[in-house]
Amino acid sequence: MPVTRQLSIMPTSVLSDWASEPDADFGEVFTKRWVVDFILDLIGYTPEKDLFACTIVEPSCGSGAFLVPIVERLIVSCEIFGRDIADAHTAIRAYDLLEANATLSRKSLIVQLVESGVEQDPAERLGRSWVEVGDFLLTEHEPACADFVVGNPPYIRLEGVPTELTDAYRKACPTMRGRSDIYVGFFEVGLDILRPGGSLAFICADRWMHNQYGASLREFVTSKFAVDAIITMHDVAAFENDVSAYPAITVLRNDNQRIAHVVDASKEFGETDASAISLWINDSQRRTPSAKTFQACRLDTWHQGPDLWPAGSPSQLALITDLERRFAPLESRATGTRVGIGVATGCDEVYITQRADLVEEDRLLPLLRAGDLAHGEPAWSGHYLVNPWDGRELVDLAAHPRLRRHFEAHSARLRIRHTAKKQPDRWYRTIDAIDPTLLARPKLVLPDMKAAAHPVLDRGEFYPHHNLYYVVSDGWDLEVLGGILLSDVANLFVGAYCVKMRGGCYRFQAQYIRQIRVPEPDQVASDIARSLADAFRRRDRLAATSAAADLYGIEVASLGLHPAA
């Protein structure tokens, strides 16, 4: 994906005013020393290399959590290679938006240098040349100027940034789409300045891998760079303060994609484990390490394009990679299989009723809601959808006097909605148009939030509400497909791609359901098809999982899940 950076000339006052705001949140989370050393080992920034001849960039240096270990390693390397560190002005480039942080970093580095034997004046010159006050994202960088980029970029949603600055960031960093976090830009610019073969390693929230706002960054990464390693550390105490940041160490390289290393670290993961992992990643001949504190594996390839990146244990990711290679996505034109979401009205109080006489009979559709699916088959609660649509057009209210009176009685409430303000002459429309063919069409419906997939067959009696997702198909026997969706194969895919809610609930949204891989319907052996359909009718997840495992040619144990009761 071509990405063109356009830097805005940002008035100094905008940056300084933001920096001086007493309540401004700069997303500062300080990294523990052993984690910093782990990251530097991962990218090969070690004294055995002539670090004097390299350039390492720290884009948001804070008080020096990364810079202090970097300089320690640079000092030792200069001793090994007979270099005069006083001349290493280009070895380090560090930035911070806050003058106070830059001053702290410089002081720490100067103390280090003086203690290592460098005179005070040269040490101060190095401190000034290495650390500058500035916005990394809005700085004009020389192309291919860095061998390494490392750090812990700030965690700030763009909503928390002044509007003028947000506009400048979006212009400078095209991957910062939608409700992006500012760290997305740090990935983009950091990668942009890497020399061929250079590496970037950040410890950062991993949400960009699994959310829509990260799509452009994922495409940018996979189109030009290689994913060397992703080390998930959600429960690891990696920072000086206790924060809920869902961190992962991501190692990317300016090179063609080869093997990707995946590690899932537990709460007990520590320095000894980090050493074993860095040795393994940097030595392709070394066997995959095993410990109670982490799981690790090598993948022969990595995901391409803007699609979501899965999460999970390394063995689960390896299985997903294999299944994605062998089977096609659930949604398919060839089989006429489509995934959709139920209707969003924009004002349920007006559009949903239990009164069968509220409006004309032909303006009411039996509405299926999440609560109607608790027992595995539709148990209609008597709610109707008040339907203002006739095909793709809104009905003429003059031809439906009861419907007109109902809407006019709630006119003030309906007209203040965003969709009504955009189209004042269509003020009584629902947010989503209503598909007249969907009501009578057999479909599998799935509630949005569940601990495990809960597909239910509607044989063509109801219209789904917006907290239900549905699957329709021309090619599948829906009971057979329902068995697949009931199984833990479906849970494997959805659990890997969705952002989990509190309590471990999955989000069974369309974008995640579409990630499920399935064989062609005519490739399903008749005995397996019968087993899947029977398991679906009986709501037997264990039986469905067993039949699905036979279908996919895998072992049930390889799913690494505990089937829900």
What does this structure look like?
It is a single chain. The chain is α/β, with parallel strands linked by helices and 565 residues long. The chain has 2 domains: 27-309, Vaccinia Virus protein VP39 (Rossmann fold, 3-Layer(aba) Sandwich), CATH 3.40.50; 338-559, no CATH class. The protein contains 19 helices and 23 strands. β1, α3 and β2 (92-96) form a beta-alpha-beta unit. α2 runs parallel beside α9 and α18 runs antiparallel to α19 (541-552). The longest helix has 17 residues, at 99-115. It is globular, with a radius of gyration of 28 Å.
Question: Could you list some keywords that capture this structure?
Answer:
about 575 residues, alpha/beta, Rossmann fold, 2 domains, 9-stranded mixed beta sheet, 4-stranded antiparallel beta sheet, 19 helices, about 35% helix, about 15% strand
